[in-house]
Amino acid sequence: MGKHSNILLLATENLLRHRTKTIVVCLCIIAILTPFITAIAISDGIRAQSLISVKEGADLYLTFDEFGRNSAIPLKYLDEIKKIFGVTKVIPRIIGRGFLQNKLAVVVGVNKEDIPESVDCISGRIFEKANEVVVGHELARHFKLNIGDQFSMRCQQRKTFTVVGFFSSDSSIWGTSMIFMSFKDAGELFGKQDVATDIQIHSLPGHNSEIATDLYDILQGEPYRLQDKHMIELYFKKGFMLKEGIFSALYIVAFALGVPAILVASGFGLSERKKEIGIMKATGWHTLEVLELISFEQLLISLLGATIAIVLSILWVKGFNGAFIAQFFIAEITMLPKFTLPARFLPLPCLLSFFFAFLLTMVGSVYSSWRASTVSPVASMK
């Protein structure tokens, strides 16, 4: 055990003595790992936040089907759906997008009593009368809105809304650019009366199959689509896998360019290293001991580079809010997000980053060191 400790101390001294090589290899590791760790953390954070909203949502989602996509469902079926055994709550919603001047906003039309619990007014109140709205804090900050201000939207400029409250939705990043209004006002805004984009159905546990059968009897001949929580969750996961795949494809190119840099940097000062190995062999070192020394050096430098990369990733997300990289995972945001970006730094990606760095540095140094340690010490010291 004492011999291994001495080799570890000698490896540390070698890294300190060859500062240039140590710094160059660390910089290469940091440049490769930092975007990778940051992207994985952001993706995991957004995925976790999205899945929380799905799990806290309805048990079933009912829409009509048009050209293979969700379409509006008439409200004439609402009373019959409420009478189905096992149904505890039915919530019709209108969800659409519209421009508030030059900024795209998500419009949610829902009855006051059906507003999600996660929507918490930080000032003002929830809408009570016609044409009253509650606005997300990013929209409010962007347009410098105050309680009592009025505005109209491009899709229906004749209709004027009055701001009565601002909210910050801690459970969803999309709430920052959202406008809540009554179901009736949303229908008038989009020119769609007596229809909903979907109907949320809350049910008793274990009754989804019976409810689906009753819905089939109610909606016979209609092109409807019924989706449960599990299906919605699969859609979310599929979407994030696609986003991660696009990022990975772009990152592989950068990774491929960075690998040669690490390999070259790991062998920086190769002639000097051959002389050192020759001296070590001449003084009685065995080949395995030389390789152990090299392995300890790469272990230490990989641990240092990966640790700095993790710290920089945390700073990138927490300090600079994922600037320039969040657009890969969240559509239609600016390069500098104006809301708190969710992120989760899990142990597994950090460990994988360390092992990637260790593997690359080992590939760049072990073979050349082994070749130098197997030749005559006299030849190595020339």
Automatic annotation (TrEMBL):
InterPro entries: ABC3_permease_C, Lipoprotein-release_system, MacB_PCD. It comes from the Bacteria. It is a multi-pass membrane protein. Keywords: Cell membrane, Membrane, Transmembrane, Transmembrane helix. The chain crosses the membrane at residues 22-42, 246-270, 348-370. Belongs to the ABC-4 integral membrane protein family. LolC/E subfamily. This is ABC3 transporter permease protein domain-containing protein. The lineage of its organism: Bacteria, Pseudomonadati, Planctomycetota, Candidatus Brocadiia, Candidatus Brocadiales. Residues 250-377 form the ABC3 transporter permease C-terminal domain. It is found in: Cell membrane.
